[in-house]
Amino acid sequence: MEPKSTAPKTTPSQPKTVGWKQGEQGVCKCCSSTFISSTNRGQIYCGRSCSRKAMWANKTATERKAISDKTASKLLSRPSWNKGRPVSTETKQKISAAHKASGHKPKIQGGNGRIAPCEQMLREMLQPYWIAQYAVPTKLPRTSGYPTAYKLDFALPFKKWGLEVDGNSHIARKHLDAKKDSCLATLGWCVFRVTNAQVHAWYTTFKSTDRITILLPEN
Asked: Residues 74-88: pLDDT tens digits?
């Protein structure tokens, strides 16, 4: 029988944990912000965003392209969860009931054939020969960068006058409005633009049926 060894037992060395363990406060190596580690494996980044940024920074251009191509091929080959399976009537009824219970209603918007409240006010002030939602053909191909027709809120076709009501959404699209006015001007149209505030002021000030016409030129 072999004598027992008295030498201390050795265990394989464990890899040193890099970063901060769970519950410890650390400093992100990417953005230098402080965070509380949520894993015992060692955390060196505050979140997935910084981790991804660091990963991409250490990749070559070839490696980045290979990863992007692989991800794109996966997304393109993945079928939609409801492809070929239309939403059932029962599901539609549940969604409708939930919306009604929460008081959800579609946001009221103007344009695309829908009359906004200020447009309705203006319609009451205009003479009946003003045509609402009048489409003016541009006679331009789709490849020109212009639509085949521009729609005016109100129009006098025989005088080629257009009247547009600009709400808050037009603040961020002034360049599109200018493009529309310029295109219509080449077709002989004169477009007048009024704001919601102006329509409210006119509606509460003028009482005659042709009250708005006095604010427009005679010819």
From this structure: 877 766 666 667 778
